[in-house]
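Usage example:
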Amino acid sequence: MNAALQMGAVVAVVSATLLIGVFGLRVSRTTSDFYVASRTVSPLWNASAIGGEYLSAASFLGIAGLILAYGADMLWLPVGWTGGYLVLLVLISAPLRRSGAYTLPDFAEARLESMVVRRAAGVLVVLIGWLYLMPQFQSAGLVLRTVTGAPVWAGSLLVAFVVVVNVLSGGMRSITFVQAFQYWLKLTALAAPVIFLLIAWRRDGAPGLTAQDLSTWAMPLAGDRDYDIYSTYSLILATFLGTMGLPHVLVRFYTNPDGRAARRTTLVVLALLGSFYLLPAIYGALGRIYATDLLAEGRSDAVVLTLPGRLLGGTLGELLTALVTAGAFAAFLSTCSGLTVSVAGVIGQDLLQGGVRSFRVAAVLAVLMPLGLALAARALPVADVVGLAFAVAASSFCPLLVLGIWWRRLTDAGAMAGLVSGGGLASLAVIATIVGGPHDGLLGALLAQPAAWSVPIAFVVMIVVSLLTPHRVPSGVARIMVRLHTPENLDVDRGDWRPRRT
Amino acid sequence: MKADRPRRVVVTSPRTSAARPPRYPATREIDEQTGLGEVYMRSLVRAQLRLALFVCTVLGCVVLGLPLIFVLLPGFSQVAVLGVPLPWVVLAGLIYPAFVGGAVLYVRQAERNEARFAELLERE
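Running the assembly step on the lines above writes:
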């Protein structure tokens, strides 16, 4: 591959990101600007920003890689990552915006009037954020090595550095612009090559899959993986319910002016994600025809980067590879920036004393830890690890949000018990899988996809403990219900809770 | 019997001069958390929850039903549309516009529920 051209693509994305970040600095002055862009962001901008932030390396590279490796069963991954927004839309979008909470710990505090639950939520945000950041850094290393031959740590370090600089300089408003730009870049970078790839495939006589692949790889639940029905259902549960619990998604809702706008933004997000996720399956299928050697080398995550060079070759192939590389870096930078802002927000507010200075220290801390993990831990497929982060979110924040918004009898004790049992068990399964795995047999399947058992446990524990502690129902619950559910145009008393200003 | 004959009705004058009870806005019932205010709030929350659960149930039947179909009806997976197996047509294509369609219907109905609630409060 032409390393200079690929390097040029990386440099272009990095400098564009930094430039927009610096431009954003000039418009973000006060602390409130810095955090939430003063809520002046329109729904399309906001939805593009959510899409840009959400589409990580797992979506851009990982899904195609897993489809190449495992076939039809992996189609559920993008379906769940999109459908999760439908669940989020109907269950929590408007009430969450109306709660006025800026972070998940804010919501826990506002709804349950408990600092203990707030701190537990903070710990989980940091945990999920790190779990999500680690594979992003790892795959940044993989991509830079694939296209330029640089050592693996170089890509991870580059992404970490740019993210820190960007988060430190711009704050939220510039992040919104950066993210929105990144969504459209990622869509273009994945969609444009597909057109050329399909033309090249037709010219090549449109070769099909082997008969063997047609009867197993292309068929759902027909592969040789053990417990594939359990894994599929667990994956569906984790992705559909985990989306609402991702820390970097919730922050975006606060930038909507009201609950109605939050719903409409989510609707646009669904359309944007749906368009994007039509593409990885095409890469996966073409990869199964042309690039099965990646599978043997254990580099299936590189299929999106490899196909343009292999099918088209020449200058066009080089240019499209450069475009895809640019898209991949956009994916690393946008997701990592969003996660860093959220994790740093929690560390800055809850562990340090708050304020912009704390936020800056926290941003560095938020990146260093997962960077260290990325360099130390063994590399797993990026989409698998991100899937685990979804499982933890689904087993902790999903019950907290759903019960908190719709069920008056939720108590702080119940919420705490649910967060500890659901989030704790899912986290243990994740650690067992990453550190000690892969495990075999039923236990391996249960640990690799914990959602099917950990989500029900979290819900049941939260409900049962709440029912056992009826005297602990927060005194202001009626007022909070008014706040969560009444449209903003009505003049009612919504209580005076505000998220803690920094 | 002459069915089309209009019935006799008593015509009286409205008592426009009588003192009306002081206007007591329904939002105040909610603010003061009276029993009536609670009834208003519960009606809104129930309507929105019913709608949300309805969407989730339909969604659950579709996404949890599809793997069952794949397992129980192997013939379904064998069908090909323009050379593409049906599971791919559904999971890598049709399901996305279906999500967006469902979301549009939900948003419309949720906003209608809110408008109805606002109307109820303002009419009182």
